[in-house]
Amino acid sequence: MTDTADREELRRDGAAARGSRIQWSSVLERYGLMVIFAVVFIGFSLRTEHFGTITNVKIILGTQSVLAMVALAAIVPLITGKFDLSVGAIVGTSSIVAAAVMSRHDGGLAAAVIAALLVGAAIGVVNGILVGYVGVDSFIATLAMGTVLQGLVQWYSGGATISGNISETLISASSGYVWGVPKGFLWMLPAAVGLWYVLTQTPLGRHMASIGSNDRAAHLAGIRVKALTLASFVVGALLASVAGVLVTGQAGSANPETALGAMLLPAFAAAFLGRSAFTPGKFNVPGTLLAVYFVAFSVSGFQFLGADSWIQQVFSGCALAGAVTLSTVLGRRRGRS
Amino acid sequence: MPAVAQQADPAGSALEARRISKTFAGNQVLHAVNLRVRRGSIHALVGANGSGKSTLVKIISGALAGDPGGSLRISGQQFAADQLSVALARAAGLQVVHQELGLFPDLSVLENLSIGRGFETGGAQIRWSAARRRAQQVLTRFELGIDVDRQVQHLRPAEQTLVAIARALQDQDGADSGVLVLDEPTASLPLPEVKLLLGRLRELAARGQSILFIGHRLDEVCELSDEVTVLRDGRRVEVDPIAVRTPERLASAIVGRATDRLGPRSVPVGGQIRLAVRGLHSGPLTNVSFDLRRGEILGVAGLLGSGRSRLLRCLAGDLPHAGEILIDGKTTTVGSVSAAIGHGLVLVPEDRARDAALPGLSVRENLSASDVRRFWRRGALNRRGERDAARRSIEEYGIRCRATEQAMNTLSGGNQQKVVVARTMRRRPRVLLLDEPSQGVDIGARSEIHRIVRAAAEGGASAIVVSSDFTELAELCDRIVVLRDGRTVAQLDGPRVDIDEINRHAYAPEGSQT
Description:
The structure holds 2 protein chains of 2 kinds. Chain A is mainly α. Chain A is 76% helix and 2% strand. Chain A has helices at 2-18, 21-47, 54-63, 65-79, 87-103, 109-134, 138-157, 168-174, 183-201, 203-213, 215-220, 225-251, 264-275, 285-304, 311-333; strands at residues 162-163, 177-178, 181-182, 253-254. In chain A, the strands form 2 sheets. In chain A, strands 1-4 form a two-stranded antiparallel sheet. In chain A, strands 2-3 form a two-stranded antiparallel ribbon. Chain B contains 17 helices and 24 strands. In chain B, helix 15 links the parallel strand 21 and strand 22 (462-466). In chain B, helix 7 packs across helix 8 (247-255) and helix 14 runs parallel beside helix 15 (443-458). The longest helix of chain B has 16 residues, at 191-206. The radius of gyration of chain B is 25 Å and the shape is globular. Chains A and B meet through helix 1, helix 10 and helix 11 of A and helix 1, helix 10, strand 20 and helix 14 of B.
């Protein structure tokens, strides 16, 4: 029954591809977000005085680099088909750990960074074992993990910001500019390039995508599903920990509020919005970054026009819903879903 | 042609389709097809993938408008083929049960029977006692001895199909007033369930129910149906109603030539023992031992629950087991799937959608799912090389697709299966493990898959084939091991590789086959 339907679909696709309709919709889907970004950017630049200035661009690139890293941390398990809802809490936990080592234990910068990354990796290992080896649903396991981490951070910090004795090296390496490029952006860039390389240029990335598509099939094709699932949680958690250290450096202190995970939903929104760009239907690094900065620049533009901070959530939500709806409709037209 | 209501019914037809054509974007896929289902009979509609049978069924059920000029008569009501809708067809008494039954697995039989038609209610509240009474009556009418409160997912597969049929027919006035259309109802059922279902369908027909049965297992079609319509390339094939009653004749009518039954093996099976299994234990499998020679194709026959699939999954490293496995004389441990693949034991799983296909990924990515490392050069994936390899596989295995980048899930079932087989062959298996290799694929793809297995064997690989289709085993295999309740009960070779012989051993000791 479905066979003929598929063939008809193919025949229609074939006929249309020779024309131009489907190709246009495919191009629209891949590069639509980029085009809209450009239009929005130009539009706001013309309408407001300060939006298009180098200063504003630099500020946004810098301030959003933490969110960008958290979004990248989120897509690593997402590619293998798993959620890590604890990424936001990992950022906060690592931030507190790094600050506490320096401030409460008089540790050096190296010790602080190592401790933060070890804690992050350990959290990733626990998530990965629960999900990959025990088989707990990732949504539930990482939700629980995130909740526990929030509680632990509140307990340890007593709800108070940890400051004092934060390494000057860390602070100066986290904020400010090098040759006009925000330093936060320079933290994020190698992570993004490295992740892009692994995901698109190595067999490892392909194996992860196979697991995300059908983990039973990947297992029977000889891919080590459990180990790679564990690894994806660890890598994601490490990225989130680096973001946590960056947060501590940028603020010169660590606020336990960070662990409450205000970054979690914007990061996932960016991951899913980014999935509709470049390689529709697949989580990808450039799409994720594009999504983070598209939302940030648009919000900034609206704020220059006089909107309040609520525009952040409203715009982010609308963009996500719009992009995913468009992607679903176009995907269905091409017989993808 | 306007609808003319309630004419007298000529010559006892329950359904009559006349000159049904369909054109998609200038491409005619159905050419003036006629089809007639006699009252109280089972009429089979068969054809290869792409022959137009699903298009025809969609037009008959009103889901798709036919080209103007065709007409349909359902239980005496006349419709123009381009004006029928699903609602009209249903109102006229035509009910369709699809391969995906559309049941709610975690709801009860009662709820499944009531949802859709509506519960008996008093005000806004469900009157459970009335609903239960009615459901009970429906089950009694269809002679289904099952509890109305059981969750549908706990029923046997054939019972689930029967519940779906009962749901479709529950509001029909009498057994002989409507038409039941069954779209490949047996495609995903194991053999004993098929037998149960087919028996019940015969009973329904005997009580006057008219049935249009879309099938692809030809032995079933021949066994079950009173009449057969064969479609090929969108046209009805004129067939001799008597001669077509054998699966072989029917197969050649479907493909338009004599099906190339595999001839005798041109390369004799080598003498060297490739795989030796000694005292294998796992779950129901008890002390299973056999040898497999180089170039040999070994069939494993057995009923559902005999351990036949489990045997393959043990050898593929997917299930823990005790016992000894020797490959080329050396004791080997297959503790994981990757270890098994490393030793050349590669599985083509039974359930393609669940265990083999990577739906969102491209044909290229599916083909290289387990050997993508081959394309890893100088720190990057050699995409051109991968694409060229994909093109070669597509050609070699006759995969019909538009492009290497086409998503796997847009391929037909048969072509997806060929992709999976091609992926497996790329690992150059020493022992190919095939679990139901031709389940749910059409006759053309089936013989192509057989050809691939045969070619691999002639290239020196060995193969173990599990199939609930014993005809397939008899055709393809050099030797058969019969499993019953986890034990090997017979090894058949030479002239004993024969369908009756296999049946006799697989079904004994009850012996009295149904």
